[in-house]
Structures are given as C-alpha cells and as structure tokens.
Design a protein that fits this description.
Its EC number is 3.6.1.23. The protein is mainly beta and 145 residues long. The protein has one helix at 65-71; strands at 5-8, 25-28, 35-37, 42-46, 49-52, 57-62, 73-75, 80-82, 91-96, 102-104, 109-117. The model has no long low-confidence stretch (mean pLDDT 94).
Length: 145
C-alpha cells in the first residue's frame, strides 16, 4: 500500500475508499457557507486538504457520476491533475452544466480522487515510425465500416 502524507485543515474526515475495490476516494467541500453555482457558472471549491505525493505519482480529480447525472455538475478540467510537487490546498474546479441553480453545502461529496502512477518520458526524434494496421486513422476511424 502506498503511503501519502496529508494535512487536513478542513473539518471533515480524510478521503477514504467506499469499498474494498474502489479506485477513487470522495473529496468533500470544506465551506464556511453554501456556494450556489448558477447554470454554466464555474467555481473552485476548496477541500481543506494538502498532500505530498511521492515522485512518479499524480492525483486525478474526477467527477462524481451521481452529481453529473442528477444535477449536471462536473469537474471542468476532467480529470484534473495534482502533481507530486504541488503543496497547496486541493481545490476542485466544478461547473454547472444544467439549467438550474445548484447549491454546494459544506461536507458535500463533490468529486473523486484517484492516485495513479505515471511515467516520465524522454522523446527521441526519429525520421519515421513503425507501421501499424490503423496507421494515421483518426477520431472515429475504427468505428467506420
């Protein structure tokens, strides 16, 4: 199990996995008063959490499916990436894609966070690439018959 250092300056419990095989942990709004998101409005909602990920890892902030389906609330830059060298407060950039106001209350589960390993690459300039069956076929290419 990967250990991640975290500081909780909020007033809610730390993110935790809901089930044994969950990939993400819910992030909660840490608010002094409710925030109203009007249709098409966006806002950064703070969590009160600060963390230090190990090198080679990132935290991905993703929408919660229930908020998206029921209320049209999603993470605007989905998935948002928290880099291993970031030490500021975790904020979630939410947007209201519905036609109704949505109120975010303190403690509300607003997003989920997945910790993921990633690779650092070094590009090597070449004159040509290996051939594949797909070749240069772009968006929707594999679904066309």
């Amino acid at each position: 199990m990967l250990e991640v250092k975290i500081i909780n300056k909020g007033h809610h419990e730390l993110p935790a996995y809901a089930t044994e095989q969950s990939a993400g942990m819910d992030l909660r709004a840490n608010l002094d008063e409710p925030v109203v998101l009007r249709p098409l409005q966006r806002a950064i909602v703070k969590t009160g959490l600060f963390m230090a990920l190990p090198a080679g890892y990132e935290a991905q902030v993703r929408p919660r499916s229930g908020l998206a389906l029921k209320h049209g609330i999603t993470v605007l830059n989905s998935p948002g990436t928290i880099d291993a060298d970031y030490r500021g407060e975790i904020g979630v950039l939410l947007v209201n894609l519905s036609d109704k106001d949505f109120t975010i209350n303190d403690g509300e589960r607003i997003a989920q966070m997945v910790i993921a390993k990633h690779e650092t690459v070094q590009f090597v300039t070449v004159d040509e690439l290996d051939e594949t069956k797909r070749g240069a076929g772009g968006y929707g290419h594999t679904g066309v018959k």
